[in-house]
């Protein structure tokens, strides 16, 4: 809907198609549809385990970064702008 009105890709554009590709075993296509969502989906089991009490020492730096609101307040707008840039490396982020 957002893309239809503005012509820009939002942060979540391609997530449904990525999940569909993932369910059908096409990991490369899923990652190409929305790399940020697939990356977050990959670390979701680790984060869930951390919340349930499994807290290994090697995960502390990851949890410290991911639980910081400033990380998300920078990452999401930067990702949104980057996936709408019309130059080569950034066009890979568009679904």
Q: Can you put this structure into words, describing what you see?
A:
There is one protein chain. With 95 residues, this protein is an all-alpha fold. The chain has one domain. It contains seven helices and no strands. Helix 2 runs antiparallel to helix 3 and helix 3 packs across helix 4. The mean pLDDT is 92. It comes from Pseudoxanthomonas gei.
List the keywords:
7 helices, mainly alpha, 95 residues, 66% helix
Q: How many β-strand stretches?
A: 0
Q: What is the count of DSSP helices, taking H or I runs of 4+ residues?
A: 7
Query: How would the global form be characterised?
Result: globular
Structural class: mainly alpha
Give the mean pLDDT: 92
Main sheet makeup? none
Order of helices and strands: HHHHHHH
Query: How much β-strand is present in the residues?
Result: under 5%
Count of the domains: 1
What's the alpha carbon Rg, rounded to whole Å? Answer: 15 Å
Helix content: 55-70%
Lay out the secondary structure.
Blueprint: H1 2-6, H2 15-23, H3 27-33, H4 35-51, H5 60-66, H6 69-82, H7 88-91
Transmembrane segments: 31-50, 62-82
Organism: Pseudoxanthomonas gei
Protein name: DUF2752 domain-containing protein
Quick recap of the structure?
With 95 residues, this protein is mostly helical. It contains seven helices and no strands. It has one domain.
């Amino acid at each position: 809907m957002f893309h239809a009105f503005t012509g820009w890709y939002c942060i979540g554009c391609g997530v449904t198609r990525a999940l569909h590709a993932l369910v059908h075993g096409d990991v490369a296509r899923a990652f190409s549809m929305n790399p940020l969502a697939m990356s977050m989906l990959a670390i979701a089991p680790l984060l869930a385990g951390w919340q349930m009490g499994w807290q290994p020492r090697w995960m502390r730096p990851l949890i410290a970064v991911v639980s910081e609101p400033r990380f998300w307040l920078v990452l999401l707008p930067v990702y949104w702008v980057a996936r709408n840039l019309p130059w080569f490396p950034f066009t890979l982020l568009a679904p």
